[in-house]
Amino acid sequence: MYDCVIIGAGHNGLVCAHQLAKQGWKVLILERRDLVGGACVTEALWPGFKVSTASYLISLLLPEIEQEMELARFGYRVLPRNPSSFTPVLEGPSLLLGPDLKQNQEQIAQFSRHDAEQFPRYEAMLEQIAACLEPALMQTPPDLLPLPDSWRSVGFGKKLRDTKTAWQLHRSLKRLGETIPEAIELLTGAALPILDRWFESDILKAALATDAIIGTFQPPSAPGTAYVLLHHVMGSAGGARGVWGYVEGGMGALSQAMAASAREAGVEIRTGVSVDEILINGQQTTGLRLSTGETIATRSVASNADAHVTFEKLIPAGTLPQNFETAVSRIDYSSASMKINVAVSELPDFTCLPGNTEPGPQHRGTIHIGATCEEIERAYDDAKYGSPSQKPIIEMTIPTAVDSTLAPPGQHILSLFVQYAPYQLKDGNWDEIKEDFADRCLQRIADFAPNVPASVLHRQVLSPLDLERTFGLTGGNIFQGAMPAHQLYNLRPVPGWSDYRTPIKGVYLCGSAAHPGGGVMGACGRNAARELLRDGKP
Ligand SMILES: Cc1cc2nc3c(=O)[nH]c(=O)nc-3n(C[C@H](O)[C@H](O)[C@H](O)COP(=O)(O)OP(=O)(O)OC[C@H]3O[C@@H](n4cnc5c(N)ncnc54)[C@H](O)[C@@H]3O)c2cc1C
After folding, report:
1. Taking the complete model, does pTM exceed 0.70, yes or no?
2. What is the CA radius of gyration of the chain?
3. Ligand 1 centroid distance, CA of 291 (Å)
4. pLDDT at residue 304 tops 90
5. 115 C-alpha vs ligand 1 centroid, how far in Å?
6. Is pLDDT above 80 for 538?
7. Which of 52, 98, 120, 298 is most buried, by CB atoms within 10 Å?
8. What's the CA-to-centroid distance between 10 and ligand 1, angstroms?
9. What residues have CB less than 8 Å from 282, skipping those under 6 apart?
10. Mapped to the 3 state alphabet, what secondary structure does 72-136 carry?
11. What is the spatial distance between Cα 428 and Cα 412, in angstroms, rounded to a whole number?
């Protein structure tokens, strides 16, 4: 009999397990894949190549987790991404942005003196707001809505805690002072009008706007995208706030370090085992049934799978209250992201910096391929009607430009995060069209670096359907559920149930389906463990 069985060894499941085991709980993790890490993995796809198949950069990981799990002792190391971004252009100067404010201003001044002056103020504004909101990442969101008892009956203890948390949030927001209206716009509004107010040069706005659409099926002109902008300047795992980094050995090195730390704390991890059902007697869990038919007895279950998988696949229909089931069925999983991993024999040689195939600044950051604000909007328009973008928006990173452990000498990995590739297609299916779409993406890169298509040695194309099949992400949504304002904080996963508990006693959520959502952050797992511990050993 376990105290807790965790469904899924995503990084959040590993964090949650570690926290529980440290308090003397008997914990088992069951992972359906053959390796731990969920969407935070490194896989040896081709001889000599180690690829971060899904997530590829780190920033959001809580420093508390790094220390508590002693991740450095287990081999976790971050290589800073410097510069942070490179935007090549076909004619005229390109844009290189990094941690040095003065250099950024010089770069931006190539396009607009006004923008060069504005940039430090814009960054300071984002940082101030992010710093005030960041403590909320580690909170269990308070229930702020007057939902009736028929929705959820809440005891006095929780009401008291919620009042205290709401007060802490209020105090934190107070630090925003006169920027509160700006913060509200960032939390709920669209990225583009904000960028339009700050800046005039399209290349800068487009470079910043791509951060606002990562993982969302929205254009930068749509409400909700500004929050994604903010989400990306949170965290300091890359060395400083908003600085993103590469994990040495690929993202899986982080998950491996977490798994080693969890094992040392006493956690048992089984991979290659899929949970088919959460067993329930009355309104209380009693255990789990695996796809092999084996049953495992446990006093509590924490699910690292998303809300659709947990509540609509693993719990028999009709078990949960009707209003809860309906709320879960309304969760938005819309997605238009695709990942293409490519092994190449040489680095991209950009026409704007010709003759450079040795690692240089243009290869070390995130490379924005071919985006103007209008192109991003038009790329979305195609997808809105069910077709992959004619001119896809591509974020390319080359981890091998900073990490020599990932590929044979002289060879490299191109990691392409591509939008918009709608999960729901109007015509055809992803298995039929994905290779053609990947060709289109490589051709798009060739506009800026013509040597790329001929340098391809191997490639892996992960359509939204593949992301769903491989990583268990419903609809291919990379965040285990979209992150518009109505699916954040106390509304995530559904209103009234943002404290990691569920209507079934002993069943919890511990993954990014819960607050604070997607990204390699660990906060969902850590917060969930705190609530499990609060409820006490079952
Ligand atoms: C293509 C892509 C690129 C991304 N890029 C970045 C990035 O660069 N930086 C960043 O911070 N974030 C990025 N993200 C988001 C980030 O990777 C995720 O938000 C994060 O990894 C989610 O972690 P998790 O532990 O909550 O869940 P997951 O990683 O989704 O883990 C859930 C686990 O549960 C397992 N599981 C599900 N059902 C069952 C079952 N029935 N039985 C047993 N096991 C089960 C799954 O196999 C999986 O291992 C990216 C995501 C994707 C897909």
Report:
1. yes
2. 23
3. 21
4. yes
5. 37
6. no
7. 52
8. 6
9. none
10. HHHCCCEEECCCCEEECCCCCCCEEECCCHHHHHHHHHCCCHHHHHHHHHHHHHHHHHHHHHHHH
11. 33
